[in-house]
Specification:
With 243 residues, this protein is an alpha/beta fold. The chain folds into 2 domains: 109 residues, Heat Shock Protein 90 (2-Layer Sandwich); 119 residues, Rossmann fold. The protein contains 8 helices and 11 strands. Strands 8-7-9-10-11 form a 5-stranded parallel beta sheet, sandwiched between helices. A 4-stranded antiparallel beta sheet has the order 1-2-6-5. Strand 3 and strand 4 form a beta hairpin. Helix 1 packs antiparallel against helix 3 and helix 5 runs parallel beside helix 6. It starts with 10 loop residues before the first helix and ends with a helix.
Length: 243
């Protein structure tokens, strides 16, 4: 799953959906078979999740009623576990309450794959840059080359932290040389406030100090770009980080 994907859902209910679908995939698969779970953008508004197994598959005469409460039926897992259509009907209800859809493909003795969509959150690129000339140049190139992302900018780490808490951007591009707190302090503040922060971060710096690069590498920074910035290289790096 790309690190730049974020969704707007009820976390507890979404975990219930994924747990149910993965449990079913395990239940109806023999030992040694593979279960794949992946997600990507479906379109600008939705993210698609897929749970694919190599299990026993769903018989044709069950497929029309698998999501329906009123058509309860029992099936046995590969180890004799009981299973019913009840869990899948709840999954369908949760997905539809989130304005998404769920569907599946299945062939008996060849496995199943369940797909569902949920709303994606707005994709945002946050630029933190104190040099106003460089800020304007980077703002222009980001808006021109990454038009599907909302641009948000600030010139200091303190305001950037508030933006991160409210919006959780898809990508942060931060200069190392910031007023009041530098790039390292800014990033450490984000990570202290959110242990599960996953958005990629790109750092811009004039320094050639290898010890500084190591600090950023230890913090999990995806890319450190030297100033003055080569815009072609900058665009390639941002594209790679976002892909």
């Amino acid at each position: 799953m790309p690190e730049t994907i974020f969704i707007e859902t009820d976390e507890r209910l979404m975990m219930q959906v994924i747990t149910n679908l993965v449990s079913n995939a395990i239940k109806f698969s023999e030992d040694g078979k593979t279960i794949k779970i992946f997600a990507d953008r479906f379109n600008n508004q939705l993210v698609e999740f897929v749970i694919k197994d190599e299990g026993v598959g769903i018989p044709d005469h069950y497929q029309q009623r698998i999501f329906k409460f009123e058509k309860m039926f029992s099936t046995r897992g590969t180890r004799g576990e009981k299973g019913t259509g009840l869990g899948l009907s709840l999954v369908k209800e949760i997905i539809e309450r989130h304005k998404g859809q769920i569907w599946f493909y299945s062939k008996e003795k060849a496995g199943s794959e369940f797909h569902f969509t949920v709303p994606s959150s707005e994709n945002t690129i946050l630029l933190v840059e104190n040099n106003q000339k460089e800020f304007r140049v980077l703002e222009k190139t980001i808006k021109e080359n990454f038009p599907t992302f909302k641009f948000v900018g600030t010139d200091n780490g303190f305001e950037a932290i508030n933006i991160v808490l409210k919006q959780h951007p898809s990508l942060i591009i931060s200069s190392h040389d910031l007023p009041l707190m530098n790039g390292v302090q800014f990033i450490k503040s984000i990570l202290r406030g959110d242990k599960k922060f996953y958005a990629p971060i790109v750092v811009l710096t004039e320094s050639h100090d290898q010890s500084l690069f190591k600090i950023y590498n230890d913090l999990g920074i995806k890319s450190v770009i030297a100033k003055p910035i080569d815009l072609k290289y900058f665009n390639r790096e941002i594209t790679a980080v976002l892909s």
